[in-house]
Amino acid sequence: MSSVVLTGCVGSAMIPTPRERGPVRGPNGSVTVPIGEPAPAPQPAPAPPGVIDPGFRRPPAGLEARITQLWRSFPGKTGIAVRRIDGEWELSQRGEELFPQQSVSKLWVALTVLDAIDRGELSFDQKVRIGPEDLTLFHQPLAARVRSEGSVTMTVRDLIETAITHSDNSANDSLLRTVGGPEAVRRFLAKHDLGKIRFGPGERLLQSGTAGLKWQQSYSVGRAFQQARAALPDATRKAAMDAYLADPPDGASPAAIGRALTRLARGQLLSADSTQYILGVMSRTHSGPRRLKAGLPTGWTFLHKTGTGQDYKGMTAGYNDIGIATAPDGTRYAIVVMLGTTTSPIVQRMALMQAVSGAVAEFHGR
């Protein structure tokens, strides 16, 4: 397989907000959010009759330059990877470096569970009890039900749906517990040789360690975790955050995630039924509607998983979106954008993501 890997240094130019420069709609309806001054895209001659689509073996002319320009213009540590799933090329910026995944890692939990189902070790209808002792922190809509009812019993199928489409941390940790813990996920990643994709210790230990705290179950109630974190000396918080960013236990490289999405879409990780099921679940993701998905024009579909880390003095440790975009003609692309550290406003983070997916759509078919 031929491979295009881009290199460079992250610039410090700030992204104009949408009020300063509005989205540009391309001739095929794609949306590009301007970031800096994009390099002019060369217009290749159409392929002669009978010649294979040139976009199968190499990126469309101009896409590499556009992705490079977007990457250089965004401040902070940024990783981008794009692969044509039904082709032979990939391109990336900082593609092999580790970035915090945060809730992107919920996808590997779901795949591990589905692999266990394929092997007959679990079933979709298996029931799992979730009590107050199983609750986690941050985004967990399931917690309200647990607290009002005392405990909740859900099927594995419902937990997968809740963990992926609503990014519910308690649903995800319940799946993780059911499938055998973090080591089960690591075995799945290793079995399929998915490369630079780590899996951390689970939501509670990952987040408390990142903050400089030792987990206590009382942190799962209300805003107890945030209050305990705010009471820490700043030196403690900074040391913990620096250690996390230097060597994230949940780190993954954008290129490795792009390859994993490619293999998932090709049916190389799970059975045909499980592959179809999880892709369907990812198509119903509620989080991040203004991230990568918003840059695609009408007629394109997108299925994905987002991830967002903790904030520290205006810096977010992990702001991500990964997914599979499908063009109206059926061509599929794996798109990964990971912001390892950024202080840019959320609107600018989303603008970058929209510009990346918009570029893929704009250059498709060239």
UniProtKB/TrEMBL annotation:
Keywords for this protein: Hydrolase
Output the Gene Ontology terms for molecular function: beta-lactamase activity
Q: Which domain of life is it from?
A: Bacteria
Which E.C. number(s) belong to this protein?
3.5.2.6
Reaction catalysed by this enzyme: a beta-lactam + H2O = a substituted beta-amino acid
Stored InterPro entries: Beta-lactam/transpept-like (IPR012338), Beta-lactam_cat (IPR045155), Beta-lactam_class-A (IPR000871)
Question: Could you tell me which residue ranges the Beta-lactamase class A catalytic domain spans?
Answer: 79-338
User: In this entry, which stretches build a coiled coil?
Assistant: none
Start and end residues of each stretch annotated as Disordered: 16-46
Instruction: Give yes or no: UniProt keyword Hydrolase.
Output: yes
Biased composition of type Pro residues is found at 37-46
Biological process terms from the Gene Ontology for this record are:
beta-lactam antibiotic catabolic process; response to antibiotic
Family in the record:
Belongs to the class-A beta-lactamase family.
Protein name as it appears in the record: beta-lactamase
Give the source species: Sphingopyxis panaciterrulae
